[in-house]
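User: Could you walk me through two proteins back to back? I'd like the raw sequence and the structure tokens for each, with a short line separating them so I can tell where one ends and the next begins.

Assistant: Of course. Protein one, sequence then structure:
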Amino acid sequence: MRQSDTMSRFEAKLLRPASSGSSGTGDPWAFVILPKSASAKLPRRGRTTVEGSLDGVAFQATLEPDGQLSHWLRIGAPLLERTGATFGDRVALEIMSAAQEPEPEVPPDVQRALALAPEALAVWKATTTIARLDWLHWITSAKQAKTREKRIGDACRMLAAGKRRVCCFDPSGYYSKSFAAPQAAE
């Protein structure tokens, strides 16, 4: 698939998340739900990175699966400020899959676990960026700390055994319903 084949142009309403409305740093953020036709052009239904523009301002972001075989886009405060857009505005978006998927940020607890398991770390380093993204998505999608800890241990054991892809994980959330777009505020 050529990168240009994934190009989509559409308008969407900037939605305010119902819960928290902030990124943990206190900064407001918005989101848009992609039209299914735009998501269908992308190479995967799970997390995928796109390049594009919002009201003419360039950005790169990782789309999240919405559990409906589509995606949603988180728009942080810096991009909102650069565009001058605010909640409820209709914005023009142009997106296409990124030329190269960026290396995912590995959370400190996963880094520590991999450092303590040299066999797992070796397989981790030998996998693809997309595979590492799926491993991390599986781990970070845990809703409870206990489940996350278990998944980190399971991941290290599976990787040490030579398993390069996480099994039993639907990165789109469609079958497990483990992923969804945020609820929009009224």
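----
Protein two, same layout:
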Amino acid sequence: MKIALFSDTYEEGYGGVTVYVRELSKFLINQGHEVKVFVWDSKNLTKEDREICETFPAIEVVKEVRGKAGIAPASITLKVKKFSPDLIHNHSQYTMGMHAIAISKILRIPLINHYHMYLEKIILYLPFLLQKTKKVTLYSIETFTKLFFNSGNMVITPTQVMKDYLKKIGVNKPIKVVPFGIDLNKFKALEVKKDETFTFLHVGRLNKEKNINLLIERFYEFAKGKNVKLKIIGDGPEKKNIKEFIKEKKLENKVEILGWKKREELPLEYSSAHCFIMLSDSETFGIVVLEAMACGLPIIGANEAAIPELVEDGINGFLVNIKNKDSILDKMNQLYENPNLQIEFSKNSRIIAKKFEKNLVFKSLEDIYFDLVKDKKR
């Protein structure tokens, strides 16, 4: 098959959606398919990236999250027509996604729209007036989301909770749940000596919706008198504010911001920690949670959005109400004080992660492609 992937970004280190698109494109190529990624240009794309990417100029419209937008209907349409794909799999919910919808209709190409993110969370980056009229803004976002995802032949969501949300707001196209796939040969527990200092680890972009200041606040309360530290891997618009908050709490010796790491470096970081912790209430899948599980880490995660579909409370970690301070501190303390519990959760994390093996998951997506193309030819 010839498969066109549409995405806002393809540069490594940008975020979960980019990780998904990069991994999917590699899998499909290895399966013998022809793949082109239609994406806004970036100076950070490598020579290898550009071999499979068709890039188009864009401007940065939401600087805080490096959000790009562009208008290039003629040039994108011509490039897609020249490639002549059997289907389009769109991973953008912004302007590149709108191009995918229009081009699929013009060229009569089957379209899959992938629901990767809650657009409701972008309200944190909108002008003050739109934040002040929150109800109207959220209604507008929901209306846009419904129209957007009713525009193609099918919708893919990474979790059941996201499927339920789309159905609730009126999306009536067929919706398939296909989680993220992980390479268990790369993400696995490594034989490394853990530091005597009990280490909590957080990985992810440093954005407002990740609730990292809340995490640091809870760690500050937990860490008093204990031999513990918190490592934060990632980069983003909130980095400066987070550093200032760490300084304000006088936690410079206990909290480290390690910046962005290449994915091949992450298994060592996961394996060196004792517990992975994430208090974000906006995860649409939680790729880093799954990576940490595959590397054998117990998880403390928010009982919100997609995290409960990865973390089984009391089995491989704890699900917490992020508004309940005492509960979070209690769960952190339980893992800190109980090595046997750490071992049990670690073993179970690895077992659960096996269900998300990359080839298994992406093969189910490939089957969906075949079925969609077959239906078109009937």
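The mean pLDDT is 92.

Let me know if you want the two compared in more detail.
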